[in-house]
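Structure (tokenized):
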């Protein structure tokens, strides 16, 4: 288990950064580019900059936390701070659009709890022989899918332009699936699968962007394929027959889209 003081300090520091982002006045400005045939405008504000800085703070803090692990033995730590950094970036989006008052404080409390358990689980999975290793892997896998759902729903709710949604979803889907597959497939980095899953997700997002969908429906219709394709990669690695693996994948995707229709 990690040092309690380090874990508490890291969680509190990240939450303080989110709180300061909410308290500081933010003025928006645009980066404007003139390209042949169209005019490109990229809106930026203090919240965007603070979210990026907070993600960097999380990566640095996670590295600092991991340095106290007795089983690290000088190994690089990037694989264990990948998901915490992504989590900080993702939860910054819904926190920035939630209204002041009780909704924001509830989101803030949930974010702090989520970050705490991610820091704890990532520390535990450094050692495959740890007593809570299997539980931590399952928790990190579930959190990865949940983060992608929250992020896609928040982007839908924010009414962002499609040229901003697609890169953000591609990066998030690719990194989430990359970490999931790394945890579930013998510690290998499946970059081809991760990039392919990311491409499928943004192709679906591009079409669904113009449908009259609620944020929950949009999130479910993207998270279902992400889960199904990740599960397909895991099943094929376990030498499950292609027909059976494809059937399970199709069922998962159909259930997610069915839930989206019900909502």
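Design, position by position:
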């Amino acid at each position: 288990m990690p040092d309690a003081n380090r874990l508490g300090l890291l969680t509190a520091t990240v939450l303080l950064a989110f709180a300061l982002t909410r308290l500081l006045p933010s003025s928006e400005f645009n980066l404007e580019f003139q390209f042949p045939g169209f005019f490109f405008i990229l809106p930026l504000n203090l919240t965007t900059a603070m979210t990026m800085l907070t993600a960097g703070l999380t990566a640095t803090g996670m590295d600092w936390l991991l340095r106290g692990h007795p089983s690290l033995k000088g190994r690089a730590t990037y694989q264990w701070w990948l998901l915490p950094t992504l989590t900080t970036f993702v939860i910054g989006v819904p926190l920035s659009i939630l209204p002041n008052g009780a909704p924001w404080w509830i989101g803030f409390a949930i974010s702090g709890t989520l970050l705490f358990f991610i820091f704890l689980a990532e520390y535990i999975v450094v050692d495959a022989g740890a007593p809570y290793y299997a539980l931590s892997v399952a928790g990190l896998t579930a959190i990865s899918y949940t983060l992608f759902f929250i992020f896609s729903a928040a982007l839908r709710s924010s009414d962002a332009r499609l040229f901003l949604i697609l890169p953000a979803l591609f990066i998030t889907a690719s990194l989430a699936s990359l970490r999931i597959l790394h945890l579930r497939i013998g510690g290998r980095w499946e970059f081809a699968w991760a990039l392919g899953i990311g491409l499928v997700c943004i192709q679906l997002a591009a079409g669904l962007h113009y449908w009259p969908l609620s944020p929950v429906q949009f999130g479910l219709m993207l998270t279902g394929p992400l889960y199904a394709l990740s599960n397909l990669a895991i099943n094929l690695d376990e030498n499950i027959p292609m027909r059976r693996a494809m059937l399970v994948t199709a069922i998962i995707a159909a259930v997610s889209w069915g839930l989206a229709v019900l909502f």
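Reviewer-requested clarification: The longest strand covers residues 29-35. The chain has a mean pLDDT of 82.
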